[in-house]
Amino acid sequence: MSQPIIISASPHVHSDRTSKKLMYDVVIALIPAFLVSLYVFGIGAFIVTAVAVISCLLFEYLIQKFLMKTTVTIGDGSALITGILLAFNLPSGLPIWMIIVGSLVAIGVAKLSFGGIGFNIFNPALVGRVFLLVSFPVQMTMWPTAVENNATIADAVTGATTLGMIKEGLMFGDTMTTISANLPSNLEMFLGLSGGSIGEMSGLALLLGGIYLLIRKVITWHIPVTILVTMAVMTGIFWVINPESYASPLIHVLSGGALLGAFYMATDLVTSPMTKKGMIIFAIGIAVITVVIRLFGAYPEGISFAILIMNAFVPLINTYFKPRRFGSKIKSKIV
Amino acid sequence: MLKTFPKGGIHPPENKITSSKGIKRMAVPKVVNVPIAQHIGIPAEIIVDRKEKVEIGQVIAKSGGFVSSNIHSPVAGTVTKLDLIIDSSGYKKQCIVIRTDAKDPSNFEEIEEPLKIDIELEPKEILQRIADAGIVGLGGATFPSQVKLNVREGTTLDYLIINGVECEPYLTADHRLMLEKAEEIVVGIKILMKALHLKKAVIGIENNKKDAITLFKKVINKGDGIQVAALQVKYPQGGEKQLVRAILGREVPKNGLPLDVGVIVHNVGTIFAIYQAIQFNKPLIERVVTVTGKKLENPSNFWVKIGTPIKDLIAEVGGLPEGTRKLVNGGPMMGKAIKNTDVPVTKGTSGILVIAEEEASRGEAKNCIRCGECVYVCPMGLEPHLLMNLSEKGMYEKARAEDIMTCIECGSCSYVCPSHRPLLDYIRFGKNIVKKLENSKN
Lengths: 335, 442
Hints:
The complex is a heterodimer of chains A (335) and B (442).
Chain A: H1 19-41, H2 43-67, H3 78-88, H4 96-111, H5 124-135, H6 137-140, E1 143-144, E2 158-159, H7 162-171, H8 176-180, H9 186-191, H10 203-215, H11 222-241, H12 249-254, H13 258-265, H14 276-296, H15 303-320
Antiparallel strand pairs in A: 1-2
Helix pairs in contact in A: 1-2, 1-3, 1-10, 2-3, 2-4, 3-4, 3-5, 4-5, 5-15, 10-13, 11-13, 11-14, 14-15
Chain B: E1 23-25, E2 31-35, E3 45-46, E4 53-54, E5 59-62, E6 71-72, E7 77-86, E8 92-100, H1 123-132, H2 145-148, E9 159-164, H3 173-180, H4 182-196, E10 200-206, H5 210-219, E11 226-231, H6 240-248, E12 263-267, H7 268-280, E13 286-292, E14 300-305, H8 310-316, E15 324-329, E16 336-337, E17 351-356, H9 357-360, H10 373-377, H11 384-392, H12 396-401, H13 412-416, H14 423-441
Parallel strand pairs in B: 1-14, 9-10, 9-12, 10-11, 13-17
Antiparallel strand pairs in B: 2-8, 3-5, 4-7, 5-6, 7-8, 13-14, 15-16, 15-17
């Protein structure tokens, strides 16, 4: 043997999956939604996404290199995803400096101050988004509407999101029938022709990416399906009781970032539970909080808050919802 | 639907490149190094001296206690020394070195015994013969067979399970043995059924060995009480607890044995050795070894005398290829990396795997991204990431409470970890310390 022989403990083979590949699969899954946003919002979506991605990568580099003096991990794809997801949760046309502030909060506060990848409790992109939402509520809710005429940002009209319109209408005492006249149809929402953040436009594109993630086994069905089903059931109950005061479950599932949240934000590996049982509890929690915020709270949407709240419960969920040990006769009674 | 165990498991590339290679008999080596600790338990006691002449099959080291096993001379020759030689554990172990007598014809007789179906011995005699013949679990665990078969009066026992799973990638020793000695194995099963007064036996074979499944279905007679269970291909199905769960749906209790659910499990290799011992009074002095690796010139399966230095096997398959960086005694999932090619083949050597540069090194360990993959694949329902963390931080009491001792060390967690974390290394380390702490308490 020309070189010294390697002695190491078993196993001596490894699957070809790496963290990096997982991360880049998420990036691939986000491409359809990004393309739709380019079509709907034009250059604005591109600028917001590019700024968020570049500033997330840059902040990670600067903080790790000069502040933490540790290994720089910008190549692992995680900061890239944070940048894309942050942008997807912002309205196109948001002032660039705000995007940079959001990125700093996401990477600096939510991720690196906890110790970097794997150690953060909260989803970094959502922390950045919520920070911006509570700090700059006006700018963060100026949604350029879907432009039929392909207008540039400067001409884009601002309008409310579907859920925003419903909330406002109901506050003024309108019934769903009158409000619905101004709403985009379910099909339009599914294809991406309604108002909202960059990435939440097209249910179709988000589903495509979600299915890709499921096929590639980056995520499992437990979180997204449980969130969407629970949301549909809860909002469905209210809708059946009083269809004039509550929007249909289809509207709830297709709008307000429910699909984006369910498939891409809640499933974040680091900040979601590690057992299937735990995932279902986590997902039900997200759905319930989201619906409560949407129906009874001040915000028309609410999945970002719901995910962050449930993120905080993940360590607790991991402690109490353990996998059943082989050979332990007493079955866990919960779930 | 093929049967399998429900929780966890992985499917690594099978790489069974030697599955069509018939078992060839290795030339008798010039020198054999026979370790006296080839089984789990107490090492055997040497009963020969330097310069003593020994015959083939003669006991050269006697069982040293209850959990121990006899060791027989694999060749006729002269004991040249009693020496410390590095074995597959990496430590120097006591060995009996025997130089083969090139003139003794018994070394070169190739007796292919005809199939002998009638079982003449009585149950008690069968068990005694198994103990005398030095038979241990040939699947790799090397647990002395007579201890496993020593069932206390009053224990309810209704199934004998034959492990023909061979879920380790690369290895084909059991597969070939099943194809070439199916009828003998069936007799071996009947021997054990007689010894244990059992009516039912099941042979578990994974579905990547369809030829073996078909063959056994053909050679088993209706009244035998023996069934063949085709199993889904999933690692670590060869683990006793997983196999019992897969075939019978019974779950062996935590810290328990298959015996607790009325089952005894034996590997096909062990069964064949038992057949040889009972029908022809042949002690365990040789076994089937798969010598394999992607870059080997002629990877093959061999009948090898215990104590044969691994370099003899390597020479037989065309020598070590350029760029070899790792040698493994056993399969890639649970085998042990060995230091050099002087290491002898022992009763537990099911294969020698030669690994080239590209696959020899581990990836760099990164932060845990809490993906939960290790939890999903753990067949024992453990949380490897947590156990690693607890072991790393020295929280052994907590690790014990999290059932670290039930880990079967299959390595599925380390295999899947996308961050290349050495989960099993730390879990093994933690287990060792927990064991020491428990021993010091008693």
